[in-house]
C-alpha cells in the first residue's frame, strides 16, 4: 500500500495501490501521514520524493471507501482545532499529510494522473516534476466532492486566482505543457522519467548547506497562522463530502465516470 526507500539522503515514498490508480483510502492516508512525519524527524535524510506505482501518481481519495462508509467516517473525524499551529501540532488531512508543514522539501514525481485529491497531494508538495503525458485535474468536481486537502488554498498561490477559478470550477484536465506554462509543474520530463528527474533534483538539493536551505524554505512559504486559518476556512466545505459527495461516490462505485468521463 505504501513503500519506502532511502537512497543516500533522499527518502522515496511510493503510493502502491496500482489496482486503484493509487487512490487513497483511510489506511493509506494514515500510513502516508506517518511516513512523512517520520521523514521530517529523520536526521539521516534531507529531501523526500513522493510518487505512485504502476504509471499513475494518484487518482484522489478512494470514492469506493466513501460509498462503503469507512471513508466518510475517516473524513468526519478530522476537524481542525481552533488553536492549531501547523509547525508544532502535526495533524492529518483526508489524504494524509496535506496539513503538515514540514521543515524539509518534498518533490512530487508525477506520471499518469494526479487528479482530485491526487492533485492536492501534488500541490502540497514543494516541487512538481511531471511527465509530459501526465495530467492534473479537479476531477472530483463531477462527483460533488469538495477540495478539502488544501487545493483551494494552494492552487491560487501557484497559478493565480483566475486560472485557479478555471481549473476548480470546470474540473477539466490539464496536460503537462499547460501545467508547465502556468506554473503548476516545475519540471517536465519524458514519459517514465519523472521519478529519475525528481531524484536528480533531490540529490542537487541535498548538496547545499541544509540549515540555510531550510530557513529560506520556511520563510518563503505561507505564515503558519495564515495556513491554519485558510485550511480551517476550506474545511467548512467538508460537509459536502458527506452529502453530495456520498451520492457521487455511490455513482462512481457503480461504474460511472471511468476514464475521466463527465457523462
Write a concise keyword list for the protein shown above.
single chain, 263 residues, alpha/beta, 2-enoyl-CoA Hydratase, Chain A, domain 1, 3-stranded mixed beta sheet
Topology:
Layout: E1 2-7, E2 10-15, H1 26-41, E3 47-52, H2 63-68, H3 70-76, E4 106-110, E5 113-115, H4 117-124, E6 127-131, E7 135-137, H5 151-159, H6 161-170, E8 174-175, H7 176-182, E9 187-189, H8 194-206, H9 210-220, H10 224-235, H11 238-241, H12 244-253
Parallel strand pairs: 2-3, 3-4, 4-6, 5-7, 6-9
Antiparallel strand pairs: 1-2, 7-8
Number of domain modules: 1
Let me know the CATH homologous superfamily. Answer: 2-enoyl-CoA Hydratase, Chain A, domain 1
- Summing up helix and strand content along with how strands pair, one would put the structural category as alpha/beta
Please report the first level of CATH classification, the CATH class. Answer: Alpha Beta
Strand percentage lies at 5-15%
Please outline the major beta sheet.
6 strands, mixed
Q: Can you give the helix content as a percent range? A: 40-55%
CATH architecture: Alpha-Beta Complex
What's the shape? globular
- Spatial gap, N to C terminus: 31 Å
How many alpha or pi helices?
A: 12
Radius of gyration: 17 Å
User: What number is the mean pLDDT?
Assistant: 93
What's the count of strands? 9
